[in-house]
Design a protein that fits this description.
This protein has 143 residues and is an all-alpha fold. It has eight helices and no strands. Among the domains are: 30 residues, no CATH class; 59 residues. Helix content is 67%, strand content 0%.
Length: 143
């Protein structure tokens, strides 16, 4: 349970750091769309929850594990309609990969301005720059 909470916390932290929690494509809007409207995820969530609860009964645990494996198999292999939210896993996966390979909207001037602003911080000038300059040569570190 703690591992699941760490993953959820990391997702929320990354979303907040990137500023993608609100808006039409924000995290909360996308999550709301997963659990409301036509073709939502709530039926799958309830089915997985009920099958998981059956797993706590020792005599029914093998059946519960088999049903959970079947549900996961159906989630991955369902064909669905790729043009809608219920499209198959592999179609949606390839669409997601195509979106991540496009160039980001962040310009290099923005990145250069951010890098220049960190070097102006007094702590950076007094501590980090001398520490970097006093590092031993790489030839001394490689054996």
């Amino acid at each position: 349970m703690a591992f699941a909470l760490l993953i959820i916390g990391a997702i929320l932290l990354v979303s907040a750091a990137r500023g993608t929690t609100d808006g039409p494509d924000g995290l909360f809007t996308l999550l709301r769309g997963d659990f409301t409207g036509q073709g939502n995820f709530i039926y799958w969530f309830v089915a997985i929850l009920l099958i998981g609860m059956l797993g706590y009964i020792p005599k029914v645990k093998p059946i519960s594990v088999a049903f959970l494996a079947l549900v996961v198999l159906v989630l991955f292999l369902s064909r669905g309609d790729p043009s809608k939210a219920g499209g198959g896993f592999f179609e949606k996966f390839t669409q997601g990969l195509a979106k991540t390979t496009t160039q980001n909207d962040v310009s290099t001037s923005t990145a250069q301005a951010a890098a220049a602003s960190i070097t102006d911080v007094p702590v950076f000038q007094k501590i980090i720059v001398p520490a970097i300059q006093n590092l031993p040569p790489i030839s001394n570190l490689v054996h």
